[in-house]
Design goal:
Elements lengths: L7 H24 L6 H8 L3 H7 L3 H8 L5 H9 L6 H14 L3 H16 L4 H23 L8 H22 L7 H13 L13
């Protein structure tokens, strides 16, 4: 069963959240994170400072939110695929499709976030929290689809951890290497394939076949 469409109230809240996050990112790119204040974010987003604080615990969280894809969309789609497929194979396909549908602007912002997280360590815990949320949701969904117990079986934990590690590592390498946007799905495919193959040791450069 698909999730119900959000109501007008939820859509307004989502738009406000995105507006605040976008303002935080814009100011950070213009001035540097240390020079940005919540009052400035509020002014640019046309909301009150209290509203900013209602949506985000800090300016750091708002900045990271501006470039964090809604990975939970993949979890919803994964749950609708049903049983009988190898979870990592399915997740590889779904994550690759998901990043393949991102717009050039969304990918540009994602690249900016990778750079900012490297420059400002205070952003990293918020990025980690987003990946933790994704892993927790995947863990529960894998358990449901495979008939395992998330409290006692290690399998859903391993699958979820492997999938999130593949996504996180691919995004980081993609961003730091200055790769082209269309190279991200390929990196994801490579990462998932290596997990599926049991992480074989790479051959040293120049070694014979």
């Amino acid at each position: 069963m698909s999730a119900p469409e959000p109501g007008l109230r939820e859509l307004k809240k989502q738009m406000t959240r995105e507006n605040i996050a976008g303002a935080a990112l814009q100011l950070t790119l213009e001035k540097g994170l240390d020079s940005v204040t919540v009052d400035e974010i509020a002014q640019l987003a046309f909301v009150s400072p209290r509203t900013v604080s209602n949506y985000f615990s800090s300016k750091d969280e708002a900045v990271v939110a501006a470039g964090t894809p809604d990975w939970l969309e993949v979890v919803d789609t994964f749950g609708a695929r049903g049983e009988g497929e190898r979870p990592l194979t399915t997740l590889c396909e779904l994550f690759s499709e998901f990043v393949g549908t991102r717009t050039p602007e969304q990918l540009r912002v994602a690249l900016q976030i990778v750079d900012l997280v490297d420059r400002y360590p205070s952003l990293r815990p918020h990025q980690t929290a987003a990946y933790d949320t994704l892993e927790e949701a995947l863990r529960a969904r894998v358990a449901d689809l495979t008939g395992t117990d998330v409290e006692n079986d290690v399998y859903p934990w391993l699958v979820a951890a492997a999938a999130v590690s593949a996504v996180r590592s691919s995004v980081r390498i993609w961003g730091r290497a200055g790769a082209k946007p269309d190279q991200l799905p390929e990196l994801l495919q490579t990462a998932f394939n290596q997990f599926s193959d049991g992480l074989p040791s790479p051959r040293p450069a120049g070694s014979a076949d």
